Amino acid sequence: MTGAADNTERAEADTTRQTYRRASAQLLEMLVCPVTHTTLEYDIETQELISRRARLAYPIRDGIPIMLVEEARILDD
After folding, report:
1. CA–CA distances in Å: residue 14 to residues 43, 52, 66
2. Based on the number of CB atoms within 10 Å of its own CB, is 28 exposed (0-12), middle (13-18) or buried (19 or more)?
3. How far is CA 60 from the centre of its chain?
């Protein structure tokens, strides 16, 4: 009995993760740099949205992109 319940819970968790990833990808496609209006890249390591053209990195805090120029980090590269 427990094995079937564990499998069901795992399947539900996988479905939830897939839905979250899809929603996150769709949100990223909609967001643009407030300075250049160009698309952004997601940096998973730094948890930032990168605008190559503006040379800015916008932080993501608690899963929320902070799209304020004042909060952005200037890229060194």
Report:
1. 23, 33, 28
2. middle
3. 7
Residues 46 and 65 in one domain: yes
Q: How many separate domains does the chain show?
A: 2
Residues 3-14: pLDDT tens digits? 666 777 777 767
Arithmetic mean of pLDDT, 35-64: 93
Q: Alpha helix (H) ranges present in the chain?
A: 2-30
**Is the pLDDT assigned to residue 21 strictly greater than 90?**
no
Say yes or no: 50 and 74 in one domain.
Answer: yes
Indicate whether 26 and 36 sit together in one domain.
Answer: no
Q: Are 55 and 36 in contact (CB under 8 A)?
A: no
Domain assignment of residue 57, given as a range: 31-77
Question: Are 38 and 11 found together in one domain?
Answer: no
Tell me what pLDDT residue 16 has.
66
